[in-house]
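Might you be able to check the backbone structure tokens below? Thank you kindly.
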Amino acid sequence: MDQLPIHNGYQGEIKINGPNKIQVSNEEGKQISYQAEVSDQFGFELLEEGVTWELAGKIPNSIRLDQNGKLTIDSPPSSPLTMVLIAISKSNPDVKIEQEITIYRPVEERIIIIGPRGIALPEKGKNTFSYRSQVMDQFGAIIPNAEVNWSIASNSPKGVKMSRDGKLTVSSNAKEQSFMIQVTSANDKKLFQKEKLHLTTKHYKYLPIDGGFTVENGEESYNRPLYGPHHSPRIIALVGDKPDSLLFQNRGNKDQEKLGHVFFGLKNGKWFADFESITSRYVYGHQEYELRDPSIDGTIRLSFVRPTDSEGLLIKVTLPDAYTDDLVVASGGRDYGSYGSQDYESMKFHPEDTEGTEVSIENNYFSIRGGGPTLYGTANIPLALQKGDASVFSQGPDALLEKETEAQPMAIGTTEGNYDNHIYFNMTTDDIGSPEMDAYLTEPETVFAKSLDYYKQLSQSIKLDTPNPYLDAALPAASLALDASWSKPTFMHGPINWFVALPGWRSTYGVTAAGWEDRAFENAEAYFEKQASNGRIPSKLNGDSHYNMGGSIGRYDALQLGMDRESRYF
């Protein structure tokens, strides 16, 4: 963005609003309108300051640009065509801004399946489930109205049928089983995607799927921890059945220190948590959602995962074309809450939690301060950020955008002017200018995929294949909780509550099965190095108590368990 020299008493900048990639999928062509904003040195738009428009590069006769910024494309090019769009200040032709744009005919490259992965067997009659797809082109953009065909990938199981338009019918005579469905491009039969579905008798609120569990329209918030790096202080992220999230600092058996909530919604619409159809899935250490509502066309997808080499929460939002510039993100609220025994109420957001916090808006990021580490939020695209009044949060995104206060401040931003289907956010307590942050904002898709793969591999440190799908589904979450109980050089009793080190905790039994023998040795050595000449082993590394190696705590004999475990290694 070039600086305008002082002229007519003003100095400012030019900004072009419009897409940098244009998908033209048919011979009828397309028209795109670009706008240029000229602002002064204080950021105020100069409404009387006009621009002239130009295109530079190899421009075929089928592409034209008028002086109103309207780009006309009569037909798609045979291969992607890149050119430079130029806006030039009328009052000072030496000042201009250039934006590279690419016009292309979309090529189908990937298909995403949208629909339930876990299905409860009906007690009687039949149930029908609808599956949808998103077909992505070579640049990762959604191809609207792409035609696909659906099928069951093998012989249809008894009591299960699928129509070509994605309707899956399950009858009460079906059996508990897993099977694959397939969606195939109608234009390219070599392009398809498969997904494993699980038919089970519903015994609990959640249904088992590969790598975790799922629920349709669950009622809970903040009931699913996402564990991350083994840093100190230990930061935990909470998600849940509803697509709200929270970062807190783990204080063990004390009340947890909430650092900030994160909410998403749409302008002229609802918060995502208020959508009528919410599919929530915990899979291999990350959380994903499929969101639908009568107020929108299509499906919004949302994913949360922890980073691998930094602190925070990575968030990916995938929006249909009609809503790419309508996304709203809001963050705020700090307080203390008790997390445990399935009591999530005290972790929920209350407007008064924002009192006494300081919200700052900077260059495409915001910060929240008020006790504990500062929480920063940013994205890989430009955000229109401001402060909002938390007292009107329950009235929806538009109310929060319209009212500001310092008494109960929240950070709120929109994706106004965005044309990308995929938007990546990062909530972090690390330095906003760190190399890890720069890497994520520069190549968010790569870093996000790396994090998904890391936690998937970690969750499969122990693999299980039993006739009980619920048991199989629970193990990845248990493995990640065991990993989160490691606080070098010792294991804690639990990853959140009882985040306390004693040498006799039973959590270390799982280490052998997970293949983490190095941690088991390190844990044992840390305590044996403190052993006194009389044989006494302290219950805590930083001090002793009346317990010997944890001793007998009520009905829990930590001394016996500790010695039994260590005898396996020494």
Notes: Residues 1-7 have pLDDT under 50 and may be disordered. Residues 485-566 form one domain.
